[in-house]
Amino acid sequence: xxxxIQKPKYLVAVTGSEKILICEQYLGHNAMYxxxxxxxxxxxxxxxxxxxxxxxxxxxxxxxxxxxxKKNHLDLQITALKPDDSATYFCASSQxxxxxxxxxxxxxxxxxTVL
Amino acid sequence: xxxxxQTQTSISVMEKTTVTMDCVYETQDSSYFxxxxxxTASGExxxxxxxxSYKKENAxxxxxxxxxxxxxxxxxxxxxxxxxxxSAVYFCAMSPLSxxxxxxxxxxxxxxxxxx
Lengths: 115, 116
What we know:
Chain A is an all-beta fold and 115 residues long. Chain A has no helices and eleven strands.
């Protein structure tokens, strides 16, 4: 059974709309992340959370807003969607987020297409 | 800022042979962590192996091993006795020692095709 569940697997949206990408992890990890993979760029770090607290944000646009309702949930809300937002968004988790780099475990991704 | 470069876009090998995938990196940090991940055809990203920069011994896990050459800022992935199921895209990544919040910097990836 997958330990990190991302929903939906595929998502099609129109420009200007808003979508929420869901992520739940069942690894008992304390840290969660969002990464993005597009056709033009390699996997890019977006956000990191530890115990539901935002630790790092490398996303320039405020249109991307992570939401953590529970320790094992980290959703990603994207507003005012643009075609350039088309990418596969990966949720990941690690045991902790500390000084020693932890191994990341990735979900299967949500492929977002913005028309 | 850190940078990771994988110059090999794709590699094709015969089954049961050994393949090496290259990766060079740039960093201002004296200590850091290096990782290799594999992305399967289904899109799943799986951790393979890691090297802590302060360790001199090359990491080995199963049929994966690393060729870590710190003076050259190089971390090659070696897969021995390749299998068809090793066909995937392989990503090199790095993270600083501290204050990183596990912010991995990834390379562009090398696509490996293992042929029967």
